[in-house]
Write a structure and sequence with these properties.
Blueprint (H helix, E strand, L loop, with lengths): L2 H25 L4 H15 L7 H15 L3 H13 L4 H15 L1 H17 L9 H13 L13 E4 L10 E4 H15 L14
Helix pairs in contact: 1-2, 1-4, 3-4, 3-5, 4-6, 5-6
Length: about 200
């Protein structure tokens, strides 16, 4: 099996979760080669390129499909994918409103109604795979007092600013073992943990 096929399947799973698999399955008995082209070229090569995060790529894809005005099924798949990779509903709606300026109000209206339908039925993946979605899910669990420690990888690096004489868990924590130790120190201190996150970075 080609490298592009394997990497494409991995990227498809990160972005589209089960929706992408359903699209591939629907092509298997009529145009399997088309499905292969989507996996190997779109996801194995284009989606895997550096320079844009998955969230940025999905935002661009949603905008382009909305502007086309005649791709509702594909738009719905990518609206769900946009949520999967960590974009908020507010960010998606802002992009669709922007569509009205350059593609016209009918295209924007159709896209917003498609989003309304997707939002109503969307279910968060049991375990997110896209980096931004993983980070948001982990922080949400952390704030709730139940951090999903199995989300941590050995590549994780935490930097908590402050003076260790005042904030014992301040400093650089690298790898899942050290980050777990940091969390244990915070829990042992018995302090309530509060976060105000106003910006996310993905890339």
């Amino acid at each position: 099996m080609h490298y592009e096929h394997l990497s494409g399947w991995k990227k498809l799973k990160e972005v589209d979760d089960q929706a992408g698999e359903r699209v591939m399955a629907s092509l298997s008995d009529i145009a399997p080669d088309l499905g292969r082209y989507i996996i190997e070229f779109a996801f194995g090569e284009i989606y895997s390129r550096p320079g844009l995060s998955l969230a940025q790529r999905e935002l661009a894809t949603v905008a382009m499909l909305a502007a086309m005005g005649n791709a509702a099924p594909q738009l719905k798949v990518h609206l769900e994918a946009a949520l999967n990779v960590g974009l908020s509903r507010e960010e998606i709606i802002e992009v669709l409103i922007q569509t009205a300026v350059y593609a016209g109000f009918p295209a924007a209206l159709n896209a917003v109604f498609a989003a309304k339908e997707v939002f109503a039925h969307y279910q968060v993946p049991e375990r997110p795979l896209a980096p931004l979605a993983v980070a948001k899910a982990f922080i949400a669990g952390f704030i709730a007092g139940q951090p999903p420690l199995d989300y941590l990888s050995e590549a994780i690096i935490w930097h908590i600013p402050g003076d260790r004489h005042i904030v014992p868990w301040a400093g650089l924590w690298q790898g899942s073992t050290e980050v777990e130790q940091c969390l244990q120190q915070i829990a042992a201190a018995g302090h309530a943990t509060q976060f105000v996150i106003d910006r996310w970075y993905d890339g």
